[in-house]
Amino acid sequence: xxxxxxLFLFSVLAGLQPTSPGYKLQLLEFTDLAQTLLLxxxxxxxxxxxxxxxxxxxxxxxxxxxxxxxxxxKAQGAETICLHMNxxxxxxxxxxxxxxxxxxxxxxxxxxxxxAQLSSMECVVSLKEAFFHLLxxxxxxxxxQLRNDLLxxxxxxxxxxxxxxIESLFAKQLVVIVKFPEFKTQHPVVRNLKLSxxxxxxxxxxxxxxxxxxxxxxxxxxxxxxxxxxxxALLTLMMPPAASSGRRSGSRHWSSVQQEELxxxxxxxxxxxxxxxxxxxxxxxxxIRLLLLLEWCIGQDAxxxxxxxxxGTGGRGTKKAHMRHCIRVLRSVASCGDELVNQxxxxxxxxxxxxxxxxxxMEANTDEEDEVTLxxxxxxxxxxxxxxxxxxxxxxxxxxEGVEMTIHFLKKGSENFYSGLGHNKLVLSTVDCxxxxxxxCYTTEDYFxxxxxxxxxxxxxxxxxxxxxxxxxATLLELCDNPNALSHILSWRASGGQTAPGLLLQLWRxxxxxxxxxxTQHGEIKDPKRPIxxxxxxxxxxxxxxxxxxxxxxxxxxxxxxxxxxxxIFCKLGFQxxxxxxxxxxxxxxIVKRYLDxxxxxxxxxxxxELSLDGVRPVSPDEEALxxxxxxxxxxxxxxxxxxxxxxxxxxxxxxxxxxxxYTEIKSHWKQQELTVKSWxxxxxxxxxxxxxxxxxx
Length: 698
Known about the structure:
Blueprint: H1 2-13, H2 21-28, H3 33-39, H4 48-64, H5 66-74, H6 77-84, H7 94-108, H8 111-118, H9 121-137, H10 141-158, H11 163-167, H12 170-178, H13 188-191, H14 199-215, H15 219-227, H16 230-237, H17 256-273, H18 278-283, H19 286-299, H20 320-334, H21 339-347, H22 350-365, H23 371-388, H24 392-411, H25 423-438, H26 442-450, H27 453-463, H28 466-479, H29 483-491, H30 500-515, H31 535-542, H32 553-556, H33 563-573, H34 583-593, H35 595-613, H36 620-688, H37 690-697
Helix pairs in contact: 4-5, 4-7, 6-7, 6-9, 9-10, 10-14, 12-14, 14-17, 16-17, 17-20, 19-20, 20-23, 22-23, 22-24, 23-25, 24-25, 24-26, 25-28, 27-28, 28-33, 30-34, 34-36, 35-36, 36-37
Signal peptide: 1-18
Domain Cilia- and flagella-associated protein 69 ARM repeats: 13-607
Keywords: Signal
C-alpha cells in the first residue's frame, strides 16, 4: 500500500491526473475482459465469494456497454449465466445478479440471439427451478420482483414455439398457478403456496394470463388448457363482483382495485383464447356469462374501482373498460363462424333489443365521442352483421329497430372520417350492417327504403373518400334487386342538383383517371384497340416476357376497381331515359353500356397473346375465328367512338343553334332599341320645331 501511495503522490506532484471511469470502461470494450470473466466462471464453482464478484463485475460491464453485451453473447453468455444461476449460494445474490445480467443482455444486446441461447431444455429447467424457488421461499419485495422478472423471460421464450415449456412440465405447473387462489386444488405446486396479495402478486397473476395468450399459438398448449379447465377459470374471474360471490375463499383477499384489474386481464385473455377453445367456451356457458357481465356494465351508474391499468384505456373510473373488452370477446367469438355459438347468442336475444339497444343508449348518452366509445359501437355492429349475414330469420329479428339504428348512423355521414378516432371504422361497419342485416330481406329492405336509406347511401357515396366507394356501391347493387329501390335511386338529388346516374358516371370517370385509361379531352375513346385498358394492363400487354400461366389481368382487374359495380347498377337502371345527364355523361354512358363487350374482347386478346407466347398456332378455322372475335371487339369500340362523335357533334350543333338564337334575340333587341330611339327623336322634333309639326299634321 505504501508503494501505491508513493506512486500516487508522485503522479500528483508530476502534474498527472487520474482517468475518468467512463474512459476506463471504454478501454475495457477493446479487451476480452468480459469474455474472460465469463469463461472463468467454470473454474470458480467451488468458490462462491469469487463467483459472486465475477457476476457483479459482469453485471456492471453488461449494464454499461452494448459492445460488452455483444462480447458476452458471442461467448454464449446468456446460456452460461442461466445454467449457473441455481448453484449453491450462501449470499443469496447470485440469482439476482444473474437475472440482472440477462436483462442487460436483452436490453442492450440482440434479443433474438439471447432467446436463441435460452431456448434449450436445460435453460428452461433452470428458469423453472429458479422461479419455483422464489415462488415458495421468496417473501421480500425484491424476491417477488425477481420472480416476476423470471416470468417475463419465460414469456419471451414462449413467443418462440412453446414446446420446451410443455415438455419440461413448466407450462403445466404455471397453468395450475393461474387458477390459484380462485380454485383450490391438491396439486403439489400450490398445496403450500400462500400469496400476500400485494401488487407484485397481482403482476404475477397478470403475467401468467399474458403467458396463456402467448402459448395459445401451440396446439399442445390448448390441450393443456382443456385438461386444466383454464376456460372455466377465466370465465369465473371475469364475472362481476355481485355475480362472483360464490367463489371459493381466497378471492376475497384481492382488493376491489386488484380484482378489477384481474377481471379486465381475464377478458383480454378470453378475446384470444375463447375462439381457439370454442367447445370449452360453450360448455361453461361463455355467452351467458358475457351477456350477464354486459348487463351488469349497463346497470352500473359508476364503477368503484380505479385499477383499470393498461386495459382500462379511455374508461378509467367507469365500467366502460369492462364493456369494451366484453364486446371484444363477443366479437372474436362470433367471428369464428361456429353456428352453435352464433345460434346460442341469438337465443339469448342479442340481435334484438340487447346489442342494438345498448348501441343506441351509448349514442344517446355520449356528449363527446372518444376512441373507446367508437370502437365499441363499430364492434357491436360487426357482431350483429356476423350473426345476420347468412340467416334470413335473424335479418327479420334485426327488424325496424335495427333499421332505425343504421339510418341514425348513416345520417352522421363521413365528415370525421379522417379524425383518427375511429369514425372510419364506424362508417364501414354501418354500411356492413346494411349489407348483412337488411339486404336480402324484403321486410327490412322496404322499411329501409321507406326511411330514405337509399338517399343516405348516395349522400355517403358523394361525401366519402374513394376507399369506401366499393362497399357502398356493392350494397346499392344488391338493393337494386328490390324493384322498389330503382325509383328511389332515380329520385335522389344532391344539394347541387346532381342525379344518381350522373354521380355514378362521375365516379366512373374518376376510376378511369386513377387507372390511367386513355381518353380524349372530351372523354372519348382514344385507341379503339384498347378502349378500357388500364395503365397496369397496358404495361403487361407490352411485356412480351410476361408469363402466360398467370391469372388473367383482364379478369383480376374487375375486383380492383368499381367499374364493374357501376356497370351492373346501370344494367338494373337501364341505359335510356336517365335523368339529369350532361353531354359528357352521355359520352361516358356509351362506354359503360359496352363495358362487358370490351371485357370479353380483352380476355380474347389475352388468349391470343398467350398462344403466341407458348408458340402455339391454332388451326385455320380457329385462327380465323379468333381473328374475327378480336376484330369484332375493335369494331365495337369504333362504333362507340362514332356514337360519341355523334353525341358531341349534336351537342355542338345544339350549341351553335342556341348561339344563333341568342344572336337573333340580340339583333331583335337592338332593332327594337333603334326603333324606340327613332320614335323618340321624331317626337322631340315635333315638339320643338313648328314647321315639322305642320308637315306631320297636314
